[in-house]
Amino acid sequence: MGRSKPLPKRRRIDEEEAERAAIQALLDAPSEQVEAAAAEATRKSCEAWPSLSLESTAEKVPDWLKGLGKTKRIPPPHFEALRSLHELIKEQATTWTSWSGSREDPRKRAFGFVPDTLGYEEKTRASLDISTPWKDDDDGKEKQRNNRAMVVLEKPPVGVLDAIEYLCQEFSTDLDDDAPLKKYLKYSNLIAAQPNLHCGRKLLPTHVDHPLKDGFGIIIITIAIKGSGTLLLRDSAAKNGTTMEVAQGHAYMLADKARDACAHGVLATGGERESLNLRFGLHDYSYLHLNLPLVPAHQVLQYWEDDTNAADGKQTST
Question: What pTM was computed for the model?
């Protein structure tokens, strides 16, 4: 209910001064304190959201989340192969880039390209613009830094091909039988394997993966390599929200509406969480030799055109 009459002038001034002081205190606080406060506020705000059950096959994913592959436990041999891939990229990455494009952001990522995949082709890597959306790229310097965070592997660890094919097969059951997207979900269509390190920060705010920038990939499978967390999911109008717990050694998939029309974020149980993104296919890329249907980027961006919704996309992808 609104107030029936204006506040007294002195009280209005006091409230405005208190608000300015609170904002200034937030700006003056060390970044880790701001991050901790944001993580706690996010945790509280999501407590009332419905939660999708772990590994439940009976529980149906709501229509606004069509294309979400609910968390699946990875068999130990496949998980060890994927963890070895994660560690190999970490070991060979001489440069790391931040999640947000800011050098002050301690959260780090790198991009690994695996033999016998689409991303291993030089022309594919040259087509990537791995820079943060919705911000100026200081004359292309961020893109240059991100390009230096690319690792082209000579040979993947033993078992990686089988592990990735296993995940593709498992998550294909979460897509409609006649969905063209199923054609992208195979090892040969992998673009990059992206390690993500929280580095002490618990929160990855909800965001949309920009299809033509650092959030590339038509289908994204994320593996919890180290630590557990809560996946946060919202539709583009912020009318619906849900959570899903993702334990270490589990994976989930974002495709279709869950990829194109929803924002996602992560609230890590601890700050040392590490994950590995497997990014399949590219929007607006010519797959002439693969004869795959084109998925235009505007299918993603149409949901995030106005400034209010685009605010969810200012953070970068994980």
Answer: 0.83
| Total residue length of the chain | 318
Q: Is residue 174 within 8 Å of 279, Cβ to Cβ?
A: no
Identify which of 132, 274, 272 has the alpha carbon closest to the alpha carbon of residue 195: 274
Residue 223 exposed, middle or buried by CB count within 10 Å (0-12, 13-18, 19+): buried
Closest CA to 249 of 165, 181, 167: 167
Tokens coding 249: 């050694």
Give dist(CA 144, CA 239) in Å, integer.
Answer: 38
Looking up tokens 């959201």 gives: 49
Q: 272-318, pLDDT tens digit by residue?
A: 899 999 999 998 876 666 667 778 888 788 776 654 443 343 334 44
For the structural domain made of 52-313, what CATH number should be given? 2.60.120.590
157-191 in b/e burial notation, b at 16+ Cβ within 10 A?
Answer: bebbbebbebbbebbbebbeeebebbbbbbbebbb
Question: 244 near 231, Cβ under 8 Å?
Answer: yes
CA angle 146, 150, 153 (to 5 degrees): 175
Distance (Å, whole) CA 291 – CA 278: 22
- Sign of the Cα pseudo-torsion (158, 161, 166, 171, in order): positive
Distance of alpha carbon 171 from alpha carbon 165, whole angstroms:
10
Task: For residue 34, count other CB atoms closer than 10 A to its CB.
Answer: 14
Contact 272, 198 (CB under 8 A): yes
pLDDT tens profile 7-39: 444 544 555 665 566 555 555 667 667 777 777
Structure tokens at 305: 């055109």
Q: How far apart are CA 112 and CA 110, in angstroms?
A: 7
The total of other beta-carbon atoms located within 10 Å of residue 82's CB is: 25
CA 140 to chain centre: 23
Answer positive or negative: Cα dihedral of 308, 310, 315, 318.
positive
Q: Where are the domains of the chain?
A: 10-41, 52-313
- State the Cα angle at 52 between 50 and 53, rounded to 5°: 125
